[in-house]
Amino acid sequence: ILNRMKNKNHLTPPSPPSLPIIGHLHLISKLPHQSFHKLSTHYGPIIQIFLGSKRCIVTSSPEIAKEFLKNNETYFSNRFRSAAVDYLSYGSKGFLFAPYGDYWKFMKKMCMSELLGARTLDHFLPLRQQETLRFVRLLQKKGEAGEAVDVGGELLTLTNSTISRMAMRKICSENDSDAEVIRKMVRDAAELGGKFNVSDYIWFCKNLDLQGMNKRLKGIMERFDTMMERVIREHQEERMKRMEKGEDDHVRDLLDILLEVHENENGEIKFSMENVKAFILDLFMAGTDTSATTIEWAMVELINNPDVMEKARQEIDLITQKSRLIQESDLPELPYLQAIVKETLRIHPTAPIIGRQTSENCVVYGYDVPAETILFLNLWSMGRDTKLWENPLEFKPERFMSEDIKFDVRGQNFQFMPFGTGRRACPGTSLALQVVPTNLAAMIQCFEWKVDGDGKVNMEEKPAMTLPRAHPLMCIPITRFNCFSLGD
Ligand code: HEM
């Protein structure tokens, strides 16, 4: 407190000692959320650091987060963009990193009305069921052959297929090379986008490819672009055919609609072909690895906590009576499963840091915050704070079952906001809250999950935007309930 009061005279948050030119960059490891956590433990819930010449505020306190993202939301509705992120969004032409304004509002409306709103999600329910069945069948086959499965990799194929079928009627899992392109692209993009690259922060290093990233980024973008060009051509040809046959255009998907906006020269928004591609790319980047990695972390926690696994299994078996595969409509009857997902997102938030940037000078929490200051909200640290959670490193879904603390995950509760908050909160929350628990439940219901050694899985993290595991979970799934023998 003394530290803060002292600093309040200068109207800036406490700051660790810094070095010339690089500022505090030397204190940031490859896992920035862990470095920020360490700094917060030492210097308090709000700190100021300089990454090179860029002023940043780091916080992991719910009270302070509310001050920034609710009470001063208008100033903090832009995101911080690194050079890698700019490159990966066709020069900031997508949605995820678009500055708040008319263009962003247009994309948000499009996203909610054509892809992620309740009506479209209902419409695509059969598609999600098919993807779950395909996934379970694949696990079963591998299990029968005694083959170990790269659980995270297969989950990423599942979530990629779901998004690509919803957005552009394309089943990437049916075409191995497309599936591989998207899988690799999403993983590489998350890794490179999550790097704290020196050239982002030190102006005279701007044109230096210090960490050899540009070459890799170029490779990713070329592969994605070639694939998208082909998919767009197919869509345009199909649309022409429908028009020639005089067919009603009722089968339009998000990509068809984006292409129409692009072709409409008199529309309120000018929408280039690069905008179309960048938007689709953003959906893959924001919506697939996040969900897949959450399911993978949840499985690891269940393997390491057999009593939790057993309780979840009993809940699922009671609902399905061991006579059918679990489905989305069962979710309201599965409070323990939902608590497992929340507990996973608390300890392993797959967007560990929310990065925003001020558009104007402002005063927040008594501190002067100049325009362009970067705000890092450390969700990972918040989930491990002993002042907020009892024994935070213990995986205890029961903490989310208590009647008196109802944790909403949609950004109303600043202690727990894995999907962010406010106008820039995650638009895919509803989809994620269907896909993650349903597929996790299918994995719990249908298989026994055994790992080699002492039966415990290592919990190390790897650097990236989406908190991947350092060591992929490799398992041979042993069938426990065969939903296909029931003619499902
Ligand atoms: C477990 C899964 C997921 C997690 C943990 C997650 C988390 C987040 C977080 C923390 C943000 C930033 C929010 C903020 O700044 O306040 C975000 C933004 C976003 N998410 Fe998700 N997300 C998930 C799944 C999805 C899915 C399935 C989609 C849909 C395809 C999606 C699409 C997006 C988009 C487009 C944004 C940017 C919104 C904007 O800038 O206005 N996410 N997500």
Q: In words, what does this structure look like?
A:
The chain has 488 residues and is α+β, with helices and mostly antiparallel strands. The protein has one domain (2-486): Cytochrome p450. The protein is built from 18 helices and ten strands. The strands form three sheets. A five-stranded mixed β-sheet has the order 1-2-8-5-3. Strands 4-10-9 form a three-stranded antiparallel β-sheet. Helix 8 packs antiparallel against helix 13 and helix 14 (289-304) runs parallel beside helix 18. Bound molecules: protoporphyrin IX containing FE. Protoporphyrin IX containing FE (HEM) binds next to helix 13, helix 14 and helix 18.
Write a compact overview of the structure shown.
This protein is of the alpha+beta class and 488 residues long. The chain has 18 helices and ten strands. It has a five-stranded mixed β-sheet with strand order 1-2-8-5-3. Strands 4-10-9 form a three-stranded antiparallel β-sheet. A two-stranded antiparallel ribbon has the order 6-7.
CATH class: Mainly Alpha
Residue stretches low in confidence (pLDDT < 50, at least 5 long) are 1-8
Could you state the order of secondary-structure elements as H and E? HHEEHEHHHHEHHHHHHHHHEEEEHHEE
The CATH architecture would be Orthogonal Bundle
Helix content: 40-55%
Strand residue content: 5-15%
Binding site for heme: 426
Organism: Vicia faba
Main location: membrane
Keywords: Heme, Iron, Membrane, Metal-binding, Monooxygenase, Oxidoreductase, Signal, Transmembrane, Transmembrane helix
